[in-house]
Amino acid sequence: MKSGYVSIIGKPNTGKSTLLNRLLGTKLSITGPKPQITRNRILGILTEDDCQCYFLDTPGIIKPGYELQKLMVENILKWYHSAHNLKYAIFRYFNVAGATEKNGECHDPETHLIPLIMQVALGQKEHLDVFGSGTRDYIHVSDVADIHISVMDYLNCETYNLGRGYGISVKEMVKIAEELTGKKIPISKEHQRKGDPINLISQPDFKTKHGIISIIESAWEWHKGGGYGKN
Ligand SMILES: Nc1nc2c(ncn2[C@@H]2O[C@H](COP(=O)(O)OP(=O)(O)O)[C@@H](O)[C@H]2O)c(=O)[nH]1
Ligand SMILES: [Mg+2]
């Protein structure tokens, strides 16, 4: 008797669960017009006279936005590994910041702390809005790049935290930035933003070369040199 695994993979809301139910002739997996109804792996076994097929229905492959989606994608990788021996590494990014000589950080609209601080230091913005006194764990983008490259050599299906394990508050960040840039960075009246976690600090899985000074210094060099406009 032959047996084997068949993973049903693809984009959300494309009929994967419907297909599984048809193949099995029973309503095993939940289907519906809303994407992401399937959140876990569903195992359905089709038994014929001469073979057994293990069908794995999976959540659709999505670009993860929020926490539940991130966890779903992490689980998808685990199931692909068990079904097809896919090798992977999962990186949980904390606050990636800093710059290389060529590339730095900016967004439109800008919401990230260090670029906003740099805008104030450069006189492009009058002051910095501060939301509470929560701390975040910053890691230099070059460290993140080095870690990715080193892990490629031994993909062993692990989950890694990419942070430095130190929490830095907005006010501490502003103080360091003022010292390094020699500019005054006025902050607006503080107000708490609902739903923001107070502290997000990793238990890091790797040593890093760059500390917070290097992160802010490199960001300053990049922004001062013209930032995105230069490249
Ligand atoms: N028109 C059409 N709709 C389908 C087909 N297969 C599934 N659907 C519908 O598409 C929606 C998503 O199906 P579902 O199986 O939950 O998709 P999944 O997210 O890929 O598992 C449901 O409303 C299904 O009824 C099909 O072959 N044709
Ligand atoms: Mg489904």
Structure characterization notes:
This protein is an alpha/beta fold. It has seven helices and ten strands. It has helices at residues 16-24, 67-84, 113-121, 141-151, 170-181, 212-224, 227-230, and strands at 2-8, 42-47, 51-57, 90-93, 95-97, 135-136, 138-140, 159-162, 168-169, 199-200. Strands 1-3-2 form a three-stranded mixed sheet, sandwiched between helices. Helix 3 runs parallel beside helix 5 (170-181) and helix 5 (170-181) packs across helix 6. It is elongated, with a radius of gyration of 23 Å. The termini are far apart. The model has no long low-confidence stretch (mean pLDDT 90).
Helix content: 25-40%
How many strands in all?
10
Q: Radius of gyration in whole Å, from Cα?
A: 23 Å
What is the general shape? elongated
Terminal CA distance reads 61 Å
Compounds present?
guanosine-5'-diphosphate, magnesium ion
Q: Segments where pLDDT lies below 50 for 5+ residues?
A: none
Average pLDDT for all residues: 90
Largest beta-sheet details: 3 strands, mixed
Q: Which structural class do the helices and strands define?
A: alpha/beta
Strand order of the largest sheet: 1-3-2
Number of helices: 7
H and E order: EHEEHEEHEEHEEHEHH
* Percentage beta strand: 15-25%
